[in-house]
């Protein structure tokens, strides 16, 4: 999957260029969990458990065994950044999409941004709100 | 079917290693070639307070403007071309238009007006264009490029009349535009009064900064772009780590942690502090180049830091990424680059794009 | 340009590459002009996808223009001129459709359940706008199984919502259209569709939910509808067969899969996926739309989320994205033409336009022209 092309210049040995295709093994997702009512409490382990159960519901034990990481989690807004291997992206995304409740509270995951580069999630120009 | 699921969307990462002193150094090409910049961030390791010089540089990033309902034919008007295009670098990007759904327009500093329009609009517009490279078998999107500086684009020429007719009478397209202008000899704000007949608002880039403490940081070797096992980290690992830093990701995890197993690339060292600064808005490449020059000068006096990093995020809905190469949005619209500036004027440059993009220059 | 005067309108001789509105490659599509619709200046409103149009005034031929390739400003001039005279009852305005009907890719959810609770409906619309949907259809269900009842009048969006929410990241408000879904289990239920019922005409989109194979066949081949609902709450009660599905695709009818039941219940989720997969085996991902049938804001999902779900249903990535964008627009336009044409769409194969016919008809037109002048 990775193509590396090196051009070492003859005159100047210090120039080097490398083009990597599909270099990232992971995909990153910025998500937020929305609830209908206020006052639901959720910490990071519960959040992870919730996503694991969503994966199990849709994709069975193989889905639940998909390794993914919660890189950040904000307990106030229920927003998080997830890391998932490329191969698991569609599985994780569809599981999040079909999740509808947490402990009898209706809820929905909103996917705010996805990227193969974690750095790209640090700047989303669609968030530029000027009045 | 499973294949389709497991295939990851294509993305490219270009890494370069060079030195600012080199004649062939292409750092200027990368910066100047990337016209629309949403966010500029830099990270200075082992720094607790921003040097005065750098502070004044980011304070003087310049204003940008939001003009509502700007008719496109204004850009083919020769008064406009003579004032803005010929006497400086003019940047315009339609605001609140999503390139995966809507028509989008931009004016590049090279004097090119670029329209990325859906098929309906294209067919009615009556201007020649090219099918978008990323619209699939059934072409749904077209790119129209008009060179405003072209010698044959003088008033009353056939070409100019045709374009004016298309944009003024045939299909009066209007957009909200983000505008900025860079000129060395004309005052920007007075020139901008050209648009005063329209609803225009002035904005300053938004600056935030913070100091990070006890940061795990990968060890870098300026000559080893691909890293060396046990000795230094690769450019890609650094790129990933910078993402973690700017997103406030905790790097203190173990392989057995339940929540996250993410950790800083190895080998790593702990920085006692690092200064992180982010500027958000509609930022001109000239200003970024200026900032980069000052970041290079940071090492004129001996510093604890080995390197500093400068990250630039492009607009996800811009019709171009670098120069005139087409940019699109496929689940995401990333186009960003990062400089790692070493204390001996060596640098690493990394440029990353997503699925609907050509390889960066 | 050669043209012939057909029995039910004007048959033109411009080439149509492919046509979604019930026809084959090379067919002519003609329908009578309705001044009401056209007065909204088609070239700026939704119906701007004409590939060729011909303008006829008082039986005389004003011009026919190809709209592809692009340099066709004459046609627009002609069209604009024609707009000035559309009020004249004799004016006929005929356009031919191109399969490229669907060229915009804004996102749409063509199924938001109607409820009399205006507040809830409003909050659903707000959520949809926030998620990035540009168009939403409010769905009224007419279930003849329960009891024979009249079809409701559709809500008037402008009355219900004085100000529509702005679509996320755009400067435009969300577009709200109306849709009727007929649940049919008996052939008699389809009469509403066959006769030009004034009530069904009020809706922008008409969908049918056939409960039996016979009705499914009828919906695909003869009923004048825009959407056919695929069951997601039970195991598919009949086989999907190739001929009716191909006929439906040819006629520009779309198959709809809704995803809200599979959020609510895991058994439904199984049915949804299994029925979707068996549909995809036959239709190969063509002419599918995905929508929510949401009753609450939290049941809505973002367009890219739904597109990802489409991969689960066996769609390719491009087809999945089309299922929430361009296909929805095509369905809407299908509805628009159905309204315009009163369901009368005449198609005629190209080879049927014989030389003799042409010879006969050309003088007629010339005659008409001379009469006019």
UniProtKB/TrEMBL annotation, chain A:
InterPro entries: Pop5/Rpp14/Rnp2-like, Rnp2-like_sf. GO terms for biological process: tRNA 5'-leader removal. Transmembrane segments: none annotated. Keywords: tRNA processing. GO terms for cellular component: multimeric ribonuclease P complex; nucleolus. Pfam families: RNase_P_Rpp14. Coiled coil: none annotated. SUPFAM superfamilies: Rnp2-like. One of its GO terms (molecular function) is ribonuclease P RNA binding. Belongs to the eukaryotic/archaeal RNase P protein component 2 family. This is Ribonuclease P protein subunit p14. The lineage of its organism: Eukaryota, Metazoa, Chordata, Craniata, Vertebrata. The gene is RPP14.
From TrEMBL, chain B:
InterPro entries: RNase_P_Rpp40. GO terms for cellular component: multimeric ribonuclease P complex; ribonuclease MRP complex. GO terms for biological process: endonucleolytic cleavage in ITS1 to separate SSU-rRNA from 5.8S rRNA and LSU-rRNA from tricistronic rRNA transcript (SSU-rRNA, 5.8S rRNA, LSU-rRNA); tRNA 5'-leader removal. GO terms for molecular function: ribonuclease MRP activity; ribonuclease P activity. It holds the Pfam family Ribonuc_P_40. This is Ribonuclease P protein subunit p40.
Automatic annotation (TrEMBL), chain C:
Keywords: Acetylation, Nucleus, Phosphoprotein, rRNA processing, tRNA processing. GO terms for biological process: rRNA processing; tRNA processing. It comes from the Eukaryota. One of its GO terms (cellular component) is nucleolar ribonuclease P complex. Its main location: nucleus. It is found in: Nucleus, Nucleolus. GO terms for molecular function: RNA binding. SUPFAM superfamilies: PHP domain-like. InterPro entries: Pol/histidinol_Pase-like (IPR016195), RNase_P_p30 (IPR002738). PANTHER family: RIBONUCLEASE P PROTEIN SUBUNIT P30, RIBONUCLEASE P SUBUNIT P30. Component of ribonuclease P, a ribonucleoprotein complex that generates mature tRNA molecules by cleaving their 5'-ends. Also a component of the MRP ribonuclease complex, which cleaves pre-rRNA sequences. Belongs to the eukaryotic/archaeal RNase P protein component 3 family. Component of nuclear RNase P and RNase MRP ribonucleoproteins. RNase P consists of a catalytic RNA moiety and about 10 protein subunits; POP1, POP4, POP5, POP7, RPP14, RPP21, RPP25, RPP30, RPP38 and RPP40. Within the RNase P complex, POP1, POP7 and RPP25 form the 'finger' subcomplex, POP5, RPP14, RPP40 and homodimeric RPP30 form the 'palm' subcomplex, and RPP21, POP4 and RPP38 form the 'wrist' subcomplex. All subunits of the RNase P complex interact with the catalytic RNA. Several subunits of RNase P are also part of the RNase MRP complex. This is Ribonuclease P protein subunit p30. It comes from Microcaecilia unicolor.
């Amino acid at each position: 999957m990775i193509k590396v092309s090196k051009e070492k210049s003859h005159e100047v040995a210090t120039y080097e260029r490398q083009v990597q295709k599909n270099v990232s093994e992971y995909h990153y997702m910025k998500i937020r969990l929305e609830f209908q009512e206020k006052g639901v409490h959720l910490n990071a382990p519960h959040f992870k458990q919730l996503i694991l159960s969503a994966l199990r519901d849709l994709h069975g034990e193989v889905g639940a065994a998909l390794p993914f990481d919660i890189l950040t989690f904000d307990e106030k807004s229920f927003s998080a950044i997830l890391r998932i291997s490329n191969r698991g992206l569609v599985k994780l995304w569809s599981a999040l999409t079909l999740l509808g409740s947490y402990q009898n509270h209706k809820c929905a995951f909103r996917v705010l941004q996805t990227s193969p580069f974690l750095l790209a999630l640090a700047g989303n120009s669609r968030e530029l709100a000027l009045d | 079917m499973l294949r389709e699921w497991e295939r990851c969307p294509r993305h490219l990462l270009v890494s370069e290693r060079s030195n600012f002193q080199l004649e062939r150094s292409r750092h200027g090409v990368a910066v100047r070639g990337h016209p629309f910049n949403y966010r500029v961030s830099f990270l200075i390791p082992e720094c607790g307070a921003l040097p005065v010089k750098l502070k004044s540089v980011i304070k003087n990033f310049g204003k940008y403007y939001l003009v509502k309902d700007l008719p496109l034919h204004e850009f083919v008007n020769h008064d406009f071309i003579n004032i803005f295009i010929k006497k400086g670098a003019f940047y315009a990007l339609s605001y609140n238009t999503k390139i995966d759904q809507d028509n989008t327009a931009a004016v590049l500093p090279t004097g090119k007006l670029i329209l990325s329009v859906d098929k309906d609009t294209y067919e009615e517009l009556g201007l020649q264009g090219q099918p978008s490279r990323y619209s699939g078998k059934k072409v749904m999107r077209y790119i129209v490029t008009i060179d405003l500086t072209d010698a044959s684009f003088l008033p009353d020429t056939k070409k100019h009349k045709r374009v004016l007719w298309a944009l003024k009478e045939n299909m009066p397209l209007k957009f909200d535009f983000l505008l900025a202008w860079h000129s060395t000899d004309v005052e920007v704000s007075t020139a901008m009064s050209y648009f005063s007949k329209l609803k225009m608002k002035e904005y300053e880039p938004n600056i935030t900064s913070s100091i990070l403490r006890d940061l795990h940081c990968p060890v870098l070797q300026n000559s080893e772009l691909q890293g060396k096992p046990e000795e230094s980290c690769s450019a890609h690992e650094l790129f990933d780590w910078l993402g973690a830093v700017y997103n406030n990701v905790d790097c203190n995890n173990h392989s057995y942690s339940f929540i996250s197993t993410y950790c800083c690339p190895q080998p790593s060292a702990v920085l006692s502090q690092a200064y992180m600064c982010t500027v958000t808005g509609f930022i001109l490449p000239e200003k970024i180049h200026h900032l980069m020059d000052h970041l290079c000068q940071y090492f004129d006096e001996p510093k604890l830091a080995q390197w500093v990093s400068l990250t630039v995020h492009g607009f996800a809905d811009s019709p171009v990424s670098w120069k005139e190469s087409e940019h699109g949005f496929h689940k995401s619209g990333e186009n960003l680059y990062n400089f790692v500036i070493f204390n001996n004027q060596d640098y690493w440059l990394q440029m990353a794009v997503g699925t609907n993009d050509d390889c960066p220059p | 340009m050669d043209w012939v005067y057909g029995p039910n309108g004007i048959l033109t001789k411009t080439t149509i590459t492919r046509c979604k509105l019930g026809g084959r490659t090379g067919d002519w599509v003609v329908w009578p002009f309705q001044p009401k619709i056209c007065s909204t200046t088609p070239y700026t409103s939704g119906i701007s996808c004409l590939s060729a149009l011909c303008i006829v005034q008082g039986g005389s031929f004003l011009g026919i223009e190809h709209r592809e390739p692009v340099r066709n400003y004459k046609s627009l001039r002609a069209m604009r001129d024609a707009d000035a005279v559309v009020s004249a009852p004799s004016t006929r305005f005929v356009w031919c459709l191109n399969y490229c009907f669907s060229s915009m890719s804004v996102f749409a959810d063509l199924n938001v359940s109607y409820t009399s609770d205006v507040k809830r409906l409003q909050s659903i619309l707000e959520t949809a706008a926030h998620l990035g949907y540009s168009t939403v259809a409010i769905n009224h269900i007419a279930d003849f199984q329960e009891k024979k009842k009249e079809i409701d009048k559709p809500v008037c969006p402008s009355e219900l919502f004085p100000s529509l929410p702005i679509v996320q990241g755009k400067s435009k408000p969300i577009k709200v259209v109306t849709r009727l879904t007929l649940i049919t289990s008996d052939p008699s239920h389809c009469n509403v569709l066959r006769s030009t019922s004034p009530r069904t005409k009020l809706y922008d989109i008409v969908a049918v939910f056939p409960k039996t194979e016979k009705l499914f066949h009828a919906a695909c081949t003869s009923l004048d509808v825009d959407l056919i609902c695929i069951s997601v709450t039970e195991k598919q009660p009949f086989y999907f067969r190739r001929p009716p599905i191909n006929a439906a695709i040819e006629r520009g009818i779309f198959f709809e899969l809704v995803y809200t039941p599979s959020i609510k219940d895991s058994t439904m989720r199984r049915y949804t996926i299994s029925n979707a997969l068996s549909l995809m085996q036959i239709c190969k991902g063509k002419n599918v739309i995905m929508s929510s049938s949401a009753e609450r804001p939290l049941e809505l999902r973002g367009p890219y989320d739904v597109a990802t779900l489409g991969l689960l249903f066996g769609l390719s990535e491009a087809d999945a994205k089309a299922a929430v964008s361009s296909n929805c627009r095509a369905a809407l336009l299908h509805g628009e033409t159905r309204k315009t044409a009163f369901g009368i769409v005449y198609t005629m194969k190209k080879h049927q336009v014989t030389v003799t016919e042409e010879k006969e008809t050309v003088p007629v037109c010339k005659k008409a022209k001379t009469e006019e002048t």
